[in-house]
Write a structure and sequence with these properties.
The longest helix has about 40 residues. The protein has 3 helices and 16 strands. About 25% of the residues are buried. With about 290 residues, it is an alpha+beta fold. It has a domain of about 180 residues: lipopolysaccharide transport protein A fold, CATH 2.60.450. The chain is globular, with a radius of gyration of 36 Å. The C terminus is likely disordered.
Length: about 290
């Protein structure tokens, strides 16, 4: 049996063209030559016909975990595991929800109990803490720069101020507040600063309307901005039909409407809800990264 030609130019034209083996009739001497399967003496792999495997666009987009390329955004198709970005997103979302469950109810309860509840705890509108030593102007009781200090039901201190508090004698159930500022406890270790442009408290209905933009910031780096909010203390709800945004170290979430129900056990964000994750601030176990000294 003759050797396969070492020089490609020694091969018949038909053999060079198809690359799939050569028939005996392709050679002038009629000899049959077969293609070796092993490498040739020069150390080069023997030439063989090769057709690249067909890869679907979906599989190509997912990437290959084992060859150094990045896995796809949802699942690694070889391992069946979520990739890092999806994992971090899920943990950041969970962390944000946990903080919202603390911040939102605290805002609702704090503003009602601290501003409105102080009225009820006093036992009488005549001794309301905000309106003590108020001046009467045009049939209204007005107090400039009122301050209120106290403790919540867990004996944690709070502090509330306003530029002005006004009560109309014809509507004694209503108290108008302007430029409200409150420092309230969120839990045993974290306080929140609440600032609102104005508020209207209804002591009979036990509701509070906040407006003029409401800003909440916490000592651990979370902030919330609402254009307005309606709080109902008996129903345990806080609602706004205006845009709201919450930002933490891990993520930012925004929506056009917000509803807090059952004292914070149910939180609903609606209409153009968007979330941005900051993965460099999150460890893979979902906890926050912390700076370490060198």
């Amino acid at each position: 049996m003759n050797e396969w030609p070492q020089n490609r130019n020694d091969m018949p034209h038909s053999a060079q063209a198809n690359g799939h083996g050569v028939s005996a009739s392709a050679y002038p001497d009629g000899a049959q030559r077969t293609r070796p399967q092993a490498d040739n003496p020069q150390g080069h792999p023997s030439r063989q016909a090769y057709r690249a495997p067909q890869v679907s666009p979906q599989a190509e987009n997912r990437g290959h975990h084992g060859n150094g390329s990045n896995p796809g955004p949802d699942m690694d198709f070889l391992t069946g595991q979520r990739d890092v970005s999806a994992f971090l997103k899920a943990n950041a979302h969970s962390g944000m929800v946990r903080r919202m469950r603390i911040v939102l109810p605290a805002v609702a309860v704090a503003m009602i109990v601290i501003i409105g509840g102080a009225w009820m705890l006093s036992g009488s509108s005549e001794t309301d803490p905000f309106l003590v030593e108020a001046q009467v102007e045009n049939g209204r009781m007005v107090m400039q720069n009122p301050e209120l200090k106290g403790q919540d039901d867990q004996n944690r201190p709070y502090y509330v101020t306003a530029r002005q508090a006004v009560q109309d004698a014809t509507q004694p159930d209503l108290i108008q507040l302007s430029e409200i500022s409150a420092d309230v406890p969120m839990d045993d270790t974290t306080n929140a600063k609440i600032i609102a442009g104005n508020g209207l408290y209804n002591s009979k209905a036990k509701t509070l309307k906040l407006g003029g933009e409401v800003n909440v910031t916490t000592a651990d780096g979370m902030s919330m901005t609402l254009q307005d909010a309606d709080v109902d203390i008996d129903a345990g709800t806080l609602a706004t039909q205006s845009p709201v945004s919450l930002t933490s170290i891990q993520a930012r979430i925004s929506a056009n409407r917000l509803q807090v129900e059952d004292n914070g056990k149910r939180i609903i964000l609606e209409d153009r809800v968007r979330m941005t994750i900051y993965p460099d601030k999150i460890k893979q176990d979902g906890s926050l990264k912390t700076a370490t000294a060198n």
